[in-house]
Design a protein that fits this description.
It is a single chain. The chain has no helices and 18 strands. It is mostly beta strands. The strands form four sheets. A five-stranded antiparallel sheet has the order 1-2-3-7-6, with no helix packed on it. Strands 4, 5, 8, 9 and 10 form a five-stranded antiparallel sheet that branches. Strands 13, 14, 16, 17 and 18 form a five-stranded antiparallel sheet that branches.
Length: 206
């Protein structure tokens, strides 16, 4: 666990305070992180975390869950943007008042999407089944499509795929016999598109 902050809000041992916030490095991704807050004292009625990109601007609150038998609480921060600096801090609620820990900085990872095997199968004169595998360290892929065409410089047809899980699959119909088609996948995350290489298949003759 990485220890991120230390704060003495209140006069220990008489007032409870947030001692530190920790996270496992493996939990930090392009879009989120799992946090563990450590506190000292008693009488807390709620726990949580706050985060923002500007400490003078708006902040987002994430509720926490106390760890049984320990002076710890946990929470998951999600929906973040990749390669972005965030400020985060833990808090406890005592007598209806939030007692905050210190701010700390964390930068989300790059959003690495890697397109794997793209394949065409069950090819007939008028149809084919397409699939495309991918890996990603981000859960924030907003759209996935399989694209196909007869000329990669010409008109391209998009087939939206839901849910967005690997492998992406679809079945094409009403194709033209004895024709070469090109296809690839297109994944969109934070307005950035990741494209697979063009692959090809040829429909059968009538």
């Amino acid at each position: 666990m990485s220890k991120l902050s230390l704060d003495f809000n209140g006069t220990y041992p008489f007032a409870p305070f947030v001692k530190s916030v920790e996270y496992a490095s493996a939990s930090l991704t392009a879009t989120g992180v799992n946090l563990t807050g450590v506190y000292v004292g008693s009488g807390q009625t709620a726990y949580g975390f706050e985060y923002c990109t500007d400490k003078e601007g708006s902040k987002t609150d994430v509720s926490g869950t106390k760890t049984e038998g320990q002076t710890k609480f946990t929470g998951s921060v999600t929906g973040l943007h990749s390669e972005t600096l965030y400020y985060m801090r833990g808090y406890i609620v005592v007598d209806d008042v939030k007692v905050y820990g210190q701010w700390y900085e964390i930068t989300t990872e790059a959003n690495n999407i890697v397109v794997g095997v793209q394949a065409a199968s069950s090819i007939t004169a008028t149809g084919a089944a397409l699939s495309a595998a991918y890996t990603s360290n981000s859960a924030n892929i907003s759209a996935a499509k399989l694209q196909y065409c007869t000329d990669t410089e010409g008109e391209i047809t998009d087939v939206a795929i839901t849910p967005v899980t690997s492998p992406l699959t679809t079945t094409l119909t009403e194709l033209t016999a004895a024709t070469t088609y090109y296809f690839r996948c297109k994944l969109t995350s934070e307005t950035v598109d990741t494209l697979g290489d063009w692959e090809e298949f040829t429909t059968l003759s009538e």
